[in-house]
Design a protein that fits this description.
The chain has helices at residues 49-63, 102-109, 112-119, 128-134, 139-143, 150-159, 166-169, 184-189, 212-218, 233-239, 270-274, 297-305, 311-320, 341-351, 360-386, 403-413, 424-436, 443-453, 466-477; strands at residues 2-9, 13-22, 25-35, 39-41, 44-46, 68-72, 78-81, 146-149, 164-165, 175-176, 181-182, 200-201, 206-209, 225-227, 248-253, 257-263, 278-281, 287-293, 392-397, 417-419, 457-459. The strands form seven sheets. A seven-stranded mixed β-sheet has the order 17-18-16-15-19-20-21, sandwiched between helices. Strands 3-2-1-6 form a four-stranded mixed β-sheet, with helices on both faces. It is an alpha+beta fold.
């Protein structure tokens, strides 16, 4: 068996996991977990990337000797480096307000229809393309000589080498999903200098070795290579979906719910754009055809507003609340910003003429019903738009711990749900490293290993499916 360190950074926490891989074994243990706390400063909302890097170093110190290191994180955000390779300020958080109204300016030059046909990316106000447009007149961008997406920035600090990993680059809205290369025409029309980006790397490519200072700080014995993985955490999570064959949908749950299909080619139709589906790149030439839904962010923000009550108690209360009493649109951008989430959910129910949830249990049930309903719509829309039927829905990520959400999703979709693994992004990260090391074969081989070694729970659909149609109709009328 060999050990691999998976650095997996989420929007609210980071962790360094150790994956031990053998011929018929795959074990994952947590070496170190640390908070990811964005900071609001006078100029806006920023990531504490130095704190994250310190957490990575502490994690590597706790792993013991490893064969390699891989890094994945959330998408779209980046750090800017000057001509000396020094970071120009803390990276801007994707929830910062600087991109408000920017999309309309972009569409005045490249209409939304053309932008989608060229890049296949769904509209989200925080896409890197819009962030760069918003930053066009900034002193930081004027002095920048390199742009590194978050995982690539951390890999640079670990190794001294620069690159741009492809699956994460595909979230910038500057990649052509057909060629799997930069969309040079779009960048030129919008005045975005692609020379800011380091050369593209593929999952499995070498990304350098740990610097001497890093070895000293972590106690690791060199050389320790850093391996390029699917550095967008969703790409790593989808690689760890324990599916057999092609007739499956996936839901990567956490702060966001990413709901979609794994395809061999992008879907670039106008109908797909209107449905707000995205075509992001995955491993082995695949396309992650999915829709972003607000996800457990809604519940996380409510829990924060309520003073951090114990989640298990909230879920027990929620299970006692009548099903589908009130629902909201979990994809509504009105829920994107932090703050006042319980009040905003109540206001949305009031505005649509539904009963207004008051207690934490009622609001929690509203959120879970709403997420299951959004999952249902996305799974159904993806099958229709891609002409790709499915027989099962796989849920991976943090939401697998929420049995009520998993059961509600099975009920809403009218399909069996297989939940697990929970740490899908870290497992996908480890599998790519092990594959580069010759211990694991192709994507299907890795998924077979996951099915044999990871704890999975199956949920069968229950109840009358007509009630979900009624709930959806309420939202449509609202």
């Amino acid at each position: 068996m060999k050990s691999y360190a998976a650095v997996d950074l989420g929007a609210s926490s980071g962790r360094v996991m150790v994956g031990r891989v053998g011929p018929d074994s795959l074990e994952l243990t947590e070496a170190h977990r640390f908070p990811n706390r964005p900071v609001r400063v006078p100029e806006g909302l920023r990531w504490d990337v130095l704190g994250l890097y310190a957490g990575v170093l502490d994690g590597l110190k706790a792993t013991g000797q490893v064969a390699s290191v891989g890094i994945d994180s959330w998408a779209v955000d980046y750090g800017l480096l000057d001509a000396d390779g020094a970071l120009l300020g803390n990276p801007v958080h994707y929830r910062d307000a600087r991109t408000e109204g920017v999309a309309e300016k972009v569409w005045a030059t490249v209409p939304a229809e053309e932008l989608y046909a060229a890049t296949g990316l769904q509209y989200a106000p925080f896409n890197t393309l819009y962030q760069l447009t918003a930053a066009r007149a900034s002193a930081q961008l004027a002095h920048a000589r390199r742009l590194l997406l978050i995982p690539d920035l951390l890999a640079y600090w670990l190794t001294g080498e620069q690159g741009t990993e492809l699956t994460n680059a595909s979230t910038t809205q500057l990649i052509d999903p057909r060629t799997r290369d930069w969309s040079y025409d779009i960048a030129a029309r919008l005045g975005i200098d692609l020379d800011l980006f380091a050369p593209l790397r593929q999952p499995g490519d070498p990304a350098g070795v740990l610097r001497a200072e890093v070895l000293e700080a972590t106690g690791l014995a060199g050389p320790v290579p850093v391996t390029t993985v699917g550095s967008h955490d969703t790409a790593s999570a989808v690689a760890a979906v324990p599916a057999a064959g092609e007739r499956f949908a996936y839901i990567c749950t956490g702060t966001w719910s990413l709901v979609g299909l794994e395809l061999g080619a992008p879907v670039l139709s106008e109908e797909s754009r209107a449905a707000n589906f995205t075509n992001e790149l995955g491993l082995d030439g695949t396309v992650r055809y999915l829709r972003n839904i607000m996800g457990l962010w809604l519940l996380q923000e409510c829990v924060r507003a309520w003073g951090e009550p114990e989640l298990g108690g909230l879920l027990l209360e929620a299970a006692k609340v009548p099903a589908l009493r009130s629902v909201v649109d979990a994809g509504d951008a009105a829920f994107l910003a932090p703050g006042r989430m319980p009040e905003r959910i109540a206001e949305a129910c009031r505005a649509s003429g539904q009963p207004v949830p008051g207690s934490p249990g009622e609001i929690t049930r509203c959120i879970l019903d709403s997420l299951a309903l959004a999952h249902r719509r996305a799974v159904a829309d993806a099958q229709r738009l891609a002409g790709h039927p499915v027989d099962v829905v796989h849920i991976v990520g943090g939401g697998t711990r929420n049995a009520l959400l998993c059961q509600l999703t099975a009920d809403a979709c009218g399909l069996p749900v297989v939940a697990g693994p929970t740490e899908a992004a870290a497992l996908g990260n480890v599998l790519v490293q092990a594959r580069a090391d010759g211990l694991v074969g192709d994507l299907a081989d890795g998924r077979r290993l996951l099915t044999r070694t990871q704890a999975l729970t199956r949920y069968e659909p229950q109840g009358d499916p007509a009630r979900w149609l009624d709930a959806e109709a309420r939202l449509t009328r609202g």
